[in-house]
């Protein structure tokens, strides 16, 4: 069996398209719903593994860059950069870890010599370090 994993924004788009197709074909008048899927079916929202990167703690050894391509080098600052992350407070960057990158993300966190990378599981429990 082959499973296709799609992100929540993609799921929203798929549901919007399906709802639009059903309403356009079968009903006359306003669509039944065009909101995000999380509003339509709250229980289907996936909260995945998260990674937190502490830029102030980072000393630019770049082991993480070798382990997971979500980390890149910023040689001018002598720090790693967590791609596609959100700065949730000064110097603290967070992003979700795609399911197919969980192994690499954990490895990146384990190889950081100063524990600048923290991994949290789906329930928000700290896994690494
Ligand atoms: S391994 Fe740790 S110290 Fe080295 S660049 Fe990555 S986050 Fe910074």
Summarize it:
By secondary structure, the chain is of the alpha+beta class. Helix content is 29%, strand content 22%. Iron/sulfur cluster (SF4) binds next to helix 3.
Your description of this structure?
- The protein folds into two domains: 2-40, no CATH class; 50-128, Alpha-Beta Plaits.
- It has helices at 8-26, 37-40, 63-67, 102-111; strands at residues 50-54, 71-74, 79-82, 86-89, 92-96, 117-120, 126-128.
- It is an alpha+beta fold and 129 residues long.
- Mean pLDDT is 78; it is low at 8-44.
- Iron/sulfur cluster binds next to helix 3.
| Number of domains as seen in the coordinates | 2
Distance between the termini: 35 Å
Widest beta sheet: strand line-up: 4-5-1-6-7
Highest-level CATH class of the largest domain: Alpha Beta
Shape: globular
Structural class: alpha+beta
Q: From the 3D structure, determine the CATH topology of the largest domain.
A: Alpha-Beta Plaits
Relevant terms:
129 residues; alpha+beta; Alpha-Beta Plaits; 2 domains; five-stranded antiparallel sheet; two-stranded antiparallel sheet; 7 strands; binds iron/sulfur cluster
List the helices and strands and how they pair.
Elements: H1 8-26, H2 37-40, E1 50-54, H3 63-67, E2 71-74, E3 79-82, E4 86-89, E5 92-96, H4 102-111, E6 117-120, E7 126-128
Antiparallel strand pairs: 1-5, 1-6, 2-3, 4-5, 6-7
The chain binds iron/sulfur cluster.
């Amino acid at each position: 069996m082959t499973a296709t994993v799609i992100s929540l924004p993609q799921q929203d788009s798929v549901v919007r398209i399906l709802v639009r197709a059903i309403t356009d074909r079968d009903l006359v008048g306003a669509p039944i719903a065009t909101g995000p899927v999380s509003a339509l079916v709250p229980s289907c929202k996936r909260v995945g593994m998260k990674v937190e990167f502490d830029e102030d703690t980072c000393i630019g050894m770049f082991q993480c860059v070798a382990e997971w391509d979500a980390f890149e080098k910023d040689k001018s600052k002598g720090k790693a950069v967590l791609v596609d992350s959100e700065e949730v407070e000064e110097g603290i960057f967070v992003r979700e870890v795609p399911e197919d990158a969980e192994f690499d993300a954990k490895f990146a966190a384990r190889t950081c010599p100063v524990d600048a990378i923290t991994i949290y599981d789906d329930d928000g429990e700290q896994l690494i370090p």
